[in-house]
Amino acid sequence: KHLSFLPASMYTEIQRERPDGGNILTHPDYIDGNPDLIKPKKLLNPVKASKSHQELHRELLMNHKRGLGVDSKPELQRVLEHRRRDLLIKQKKEEEEAKKLQSPFEKELLKRHQRLDQLEKEQEKQEDHAPEFIKVKENLRRTSTVTGDEKAA
Asked: Which top-rank group of organisms is this from (predicted)?
């Protein structure tokens, strides 16, 4: 009678602790009362430990308590986006006004500058298509005129 109260084995003691047999987690092989054994500690999930995750989770809980949906944004974020959008619109308007307020003189200078760029490009294309002996001859003329000018000076 006295021995029936003591567990027959360690296995039966573990079985008594968890009555449901379908538990996926396994119990450790050590006895909780043994002070010589080092008990393993549960590893921390780095995602859940991060500050950004905790803040996001806290914000989601607060939104849920207030009855706000997940799609709605915090007030600060909405205000910042509104300011950015207003700033971009203002910059575009200023650029358009600057283009409209150009004087006729500035417009004419811009047209001439564009024409000169086109002419330079056309000349470069023509020089690229010219035979090599013509290019060499032009270089020789330049060097001969430079040396002749240097002798005169």
From this structure: Eukaryota
Q: Let me know: does 27 contact 14? Beta carbons within 8 Å.
A: yes
Q: What is the C-alpha to C-alpha distance for residues 24 and 21, in angstroms, rounded to an integer?
A: 9
How many angstroms separate the CA atoms of 63 and 43, rounded?
30
Sign of CA dihedral 139, 143, 144, 149: positive
Q: By three-state DSSP, how is residue 29 classified?
A: coil
Task: Give the C-alpha separation, 21 to 80, whole Å.
Answer: 55
Q: Tokens 């001859």 label which residue?
A: 137
24 three-class SS: coil
What is the spatial distance between Cα 153 and Cα 92, in angstroms, rounded to a whole number?
58
Cα separation of the two ends of the chain: 132
d(CA 75, CA 102): 41
**Segments in the chain forming alpha helices (H):** 10-17, 46-49, 51-66, 75-100, 104-129, 132-152
3-class SS of residue 63: helix
**Is the pTM higher than 0.90?**
no
